[in-house]
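Record 1 of the preview.
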Amino acid sequence: MSLQSLVAETAVSIAERRAKRLGAGFYSGRQLMIIERSYKALRSSSWLVVLSGFVEPVFYLAAFGFGVGQLIHGMTDGNGHPVSYGAYIAPALLASSAMNGAIYDSTWNVFFKMHFAKLYEGMMSTSLGALDVALGEIGWALLRGLAYAIGFMAVMIPLGLVPSAWGLLSVAAAVLVAFGFASFGMAVTSFIKSFHGMNWINFVLLPMFLFSGTFYPLSVYPQWLQVIVQAMPLWQGVDLMRNLNFGTFNWHMLGEVAYFVVMIVLGLIFTTRRLTALFMR
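->
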């Protein structure tokens, strides 16, 4: 038997076994192939684009936390204890860093692969299914968000901006935040058909970054506006990480975790259905 025949028979055998599994029409369990492909593509691309996502929040921390922050006093943690302005905004910038790392990989990169490189058409003509593609792309975006979170935490600790050992759990929270934004971001991107439509992503992200309690407490807003801000996903991540960083715990944190779990589940469902409708007709 020739090598080509052996490979063909093995492929057929694997396909037959997968066909009997639940969900075989959209999932083959090979999402790691997507992550591997993204890693190889990254090695041949410019690292400056990736690095910029980490440097941006560090610049904000230096400019506001240790620049303007010298003029700001009266910031407190969840228990009313006074904290420096740098320590107050650092966990919020960590949440923003995780969001940016995940959202740009799951939106702009996915948009290019979908509409210009036509990668997903080729991928889904193989044994890969829509859920494989979704998990692979979201997993890669998640890794980028995790890398940003670890790098930013490595900046925070030497500067004394992590007053509680519980603050180390902020990295795990950053992964949850990145997962939620990556899942939802890819779901939204699958419905966008032009570069003009992609501009809406930046239109939403910038106000959310500025007004989600990143640089000042929620109490500066009127009551009706506080409700709107608290509904934003970044506020949920900021509040979660701020409480972890200061070691202050409350029942709201469970709701914030549940918020991102719902984002993840809904994002995966909508992305899988959309990719199936587009490429598996």
